[in-house]
């Protein structure tokens, strides 16, 4: 056992300094920035598709209750508000070219990080409450046309889905997003310091 502890202490005390050239780091950063930008565009496209899908309910169905119309309207307002926030975030990450203006891009990246933090911690709950209220109002009329077992199943599924998204999915997305952006900020700060030492 002492031999294992000795080997472990030697291993931990042995540090290898990994040197990555600024070109390699810039290539990695470029790949990650493009990934964040593409994901941002996909999120915006998904929100636009969701808006059109929910709005099409008014076109294809003749709802009689005001609660259904109010539920759909709340859904649309929530989706539109979140889409505007996502577009603002996309502009932050896309407005500066990091190869020509790395310091400006770093400032934008830090603003984007704060924007995402606000989105996940403040706006998410407003969005979740709006969707819950919209769903409840929408289901008042829709569920009256269904059997009792279907009503219970739909309400139960809706509640479980919202709880699942609000807990497990939200935490996983926040953690992954935070790590990705923090790593990217660190790379740009290291790139900036390498360029300063080279000049």
TrEMBL record:
The keyword Transmembrane applies. The chain crosses the membrane at residues 40-60, 66-87, 124-143, 149-169. It comes from the Bacteria. Keywords: Membrane, Transmembrane, Transmembrane helix. This is Uncharacterized protein. It comes from Pedobacter steynii.
